[in-house]
Specification:
The protein has 15 helices and eleven strands. By secondary structure, it is an alpha/beta fold. β6 (about 165-170), α7 (about 175-185) and β7 (about 200-205) form a beta-alpha-beta unit. α3 (about 75-80) packs across α11, α7 packs across α14 (about 330-340) and α11 (about 270-285) crosses α12.
């Protein structure tokens, strides 16, 4: 199912520079949700802190920023590649770290080896709840959309045909797994959330493995984020459902920005500078969709050595909307879905957001402030 016109208009259309980039199979290892907590990428624009516009020195000499090398983390990819985050930090050095999945990023944040991270809603919720609200705060949105149910069209032609089939999700309890289990429940079908067995077989499969499993026929489809979804389409799959169609205004949070509460307390000026960089990055992405797509692909190539082919990145890029708005109401809904699926008990999310610095940055930029849907400070 194609992205909506509204999504295309607010983000990144076209077949720009990335259209000439060759498809090389190894890319999915890099986009497949990380390369284990990787290297300090100080060799490019991202690692070289440019002088701040006002020449002000910030309170920390460095800031460690985590993200996944995939397109739903476009703000991180482009902001680091173009030096837009580093520029706001002046002499404060950016130390990027890429992760395989949310739990490892949360562990790094808890362990003090990470300060700020781009992450999906489910790991953010789990990290907040398990620490009883002591380890993180969501300080901004980053992206919406970019998740699709892609199926083998020879085996599945309608939504009802999904019953009895084997459908992959990236990880038990991850954001896409929760969304798929909720969709199954809405259909009136039964699946055990722990084993994945039931009216549909939910097969938890790493995104970098999913394309091969799909080609080999061991799965009949997958509910996955980009660029895995578009990779499956390029391998003969068909988009049966775009998750945006299930949400009000066709928007739902897929990536947030989180911060260690300790780092936020000790270095609010650095956090504010990072947010100034992400706000400017999202503005640049929306104003320059083709250049931004090529920039994101260049960052992916730097991570894994190989860029995405145009037939993968073009549809994937069109389905993702970068946004500063954390879409807090949809985070609460996602938590409710996880409860309904039997994956978690009803969480108390009061205090999970601190949007004070983001709204300060937005106000200074003449942009509308965003809301925490009454999930802010206790």
């Amino acid at each position: 199912m194609p992205a909506t016109g509204k999504t295309r208009n607010t983000s990144r259309r076209g077949l720009a520079a990335a259209a000439a980039l060759p498809l090389l199979i190894g890319v999915l290892a890099s986009c497949g949700y990380g390369s284990q907590a990787v290297k300090d990428e100080t060799g490019g624009k991202a690692g070289n802190a440019a002088p701040a516009a006002d020449g002000k020195k910030l309170s920390a000499s460095e800031v460690r920023i985590g993200y996944f090398p995939n397109l739903t983390h476009a703000t991180a990819l482009v902001g680091l590649q173009e030096g837009l985050i580093a520029k706001e930090l002046g002499a404060t050095k950016v130390k990027p770290q890429a992760f395989n999945a949310g739990p490892s990023e949360i562990e790094a944040l808890n362990g003090g080896s990470l300060d700020i991270g781009f992450i999906g809603p489910s790991p953010a919720i789990n990290g907040y709840v398990k620490s009883k609200g002591s380890n993180l705060r969501i300080i901004s949105g980053s992206a919406s959309g970019g998740v699709k149910l892609v199926v083998n069209p020879e085996k599945i032609k309608t939504l009802d045909d999904v019953k009895g089939k084997k459908i992959a999700t990236p990880q038990k309890g991850n954001t896409q797994d929760v969304a798929f289990l909720n969709w199954i429940a809405e259909k009136g079908w039964k699946v055990d959330p722990e084993s994945g067995k039931g009216d549909v077989s939910v097969v938890r499969t790493d995104n970098k493995v999913t394309p091969d499993a799909f080609k080999q026929g061991s799965i009949d489809g997958a509910w996955v984020p980009e660029p895995t979804a578009s990779k499956l389409v390029s391998d003969g799959g068909s988009v049966l459902l775009d998750e945006t169609t299930l949400w009000p205004d066709k928007k739902f949070v897929i990536t947030n920005i989180i911060v260690s509460q300790k780092f936020l307390k000790e270095h609010p000026d650095v956090v504010e500078a990072v947010l100034a960089g992400t706000v400017k990055t999202n503005e640049w992405i929306n104003a320059n969709p083709d250049k931004a797509k090529a920039s994101a692909n260049a960052k992916l190539a730097a991570e894994g050595g190989k860029p995405l082919d145009a037939k993968v990145i073009d549809p994937a890029w069109q389905s993702i909307l970068v946004t500063d708005d954390p879409l807090a109401a949809t985070l609460k809904a996602q938590a409710d879905h996880a409860v309904k699926a039997g994956l978690i008990e009803q969480p108390d999310l009061t205090g999970i957001y601190d949007l004070t610095l983001l709204n300060k940055v937005l106000k200074a930029a003449g942009k509308p402030e965003v809301t925490d849907a009454a999930l802010g400070a206790k």
